[in-house]
Design a protein that fits this description.
This protein has an eight-stranded mixed sheet with strand order 3-2-1-4-5-6-7-8, with helices on both faces. The chain has two domains: about 5-170, Rossmann fold; about 180-320, Orthogonal Bundle (N-(1-d-carboxylethyl)-l-norvaline Dehydrogenase, domain 2), CATH 1.10.1040.10. By secondary structure, it is α/β, with parallel strands linked by helices. The chain contains 15 helices and eight strands. Helix content is about 50%, strand content about 10%. The chain is globular, with a radius of gyration of 19 Å. The longest helix has 23 residues, at about 180-200.
Length: about 325
């Protein structure tokens, strides 16, 4: 391809996506840690986040944001939500006009409840925005296992033009013009995954897990539609697909956090043990505020918020969910 890409963020998913792009087009990845930059350039590895994996030899890393951004035709943001705005503001000084900006981040900004694409619109007005999302575990994809993702932008022409940039080998990329729905699916599933993990950590059975996932999808869909997403999006890869994966895979950080909480660990202990950002912890508060603002009932998310931020007891929360007033399934 004639496009050149810049990717900001040297974590597991950012590095994986950069390695995928390198098969199709020139790409420079920016990482905050100089050791990570040197390791990618010299050894084609990132052992901190992707132990045992070999990256594409064409991938180039840099410690300079200007070097990654100034000449790119597409900017990809793989930065955690709490640093997203600051890093994007630094990149804004070097990016050319009208360059599309794609987010990989599945979180909300603390204090504003803004999605990452809304931050992009604030910092870089006029730039086309999109997300790459779906049921995608970095370690499996970098190892060459088959997977599928969704590239979502409101502009159907641009999203189809960028589809081939990310489509690579056994990583199949679909397109969707429901940007709001796709982005929210990736955000909200993290809360449900914490709940499912807590149930499993307490020894709950397969029936409980299935019920939490299904009712969790109902919560996600209710809020997503209230915020402008399309119902069918939440039955696809960005909704149900990502939810099922995040709730059942032990590679999922949010599920692992839930497992630890269900076993009696504190939030701080669990996060420290995982050693990477767990987006669901920070997102739980913002999702609760969004649900209240839009008048959407989200009982599972409410219990997760209470456990993570108010110190509620996980076992009691599970009992409280089961003792709620009986109602019709679709109401």
């Amino acid at each position: 391809m004639n496009l050149k890409a810049g990717l900001l963020g040297g974590g597991s998913w950012g590095t994986t996506v950069a390695s995928l792009i390198a098969r199709n087009a020139p790409v420079k990845i920016w990482a905050r840690c100089a050791d990570t930059v040197n390791e990618i350039n010299e050894n084609h590895t990132n052992t901190k986040y992707l132990p045992g994996a070999t990256l594409n030899s064409k991938l180039v890393a840099t410690h300079c944001i200007e070097e990654a951004v100034s000449g790119c035709d597409v900017l990809v943001m793989g930065v955690p939500s709490q640093h997203f705005r600051v890093v994007l503001e630094q990149a804004s000084e070097h990016i050319r006009p009208w360059v599309p900006v794609i987010s990989l981040t599945k979180g909300l900004e603390a204090g504003t409840e803004l999605r990452m694409t809304e931050i992009i619109n604030e910092v870089l007005p006029g730039h086309p925005v999109g997300v790459l999302t779906g049921p995608n575990l970095a370690r499996e994809i970098i190892a060459g296992q088959a997977a599928a993702g969704v590239m979502a932008m409101e502009d159907e022409i641009i999203v189809r033009a960028l589809q081939e940039l990310f489509h690579s080998g056994l990583f199949r990329v679909y397109t969707n013009t429901d940007l709001v729905g796709c982005e929210l699916g990736g955000v909200l599933k993290n809360i449900i995954a914490i709940a499912v993990g807590m149930g499993d950590g307490q020894g709950a059975g397969d029936n409980t897990r299935s019920a939490l996932i299904t009712r969790g999808l109902a919560e996600i869909t209710r809020l997503g539609v209230a915020m402008g997403g399309r119902p069918e999006t939440f039955a696809g890869l960005a909704g149900m697909g990502d939810l099922v994966l995040t709730c059942t895979s032990n590679l999922s950080r949010n599920r692992r956090l839930g497992l630890a909480l269900g076993a009696g660990r504190s939030v701080e202990e669990a996060v420290a043990e995982i050693g990477q950002v767990v987006e669901g912890v920070k997102t739980a508060r913002e999702v609760r505020r969004l649900a209240q603002r839009h008048g959407v009932e989200m009982p599972i998310s409410e219990q997760v918020y209470g456990i993570v931020h108010e110190g509620w007891e996980p076992r009691k929360c599970l009992r409280d969910l089961l003792s709620r007033e009986q109602k019709e399934e679709t109401s």
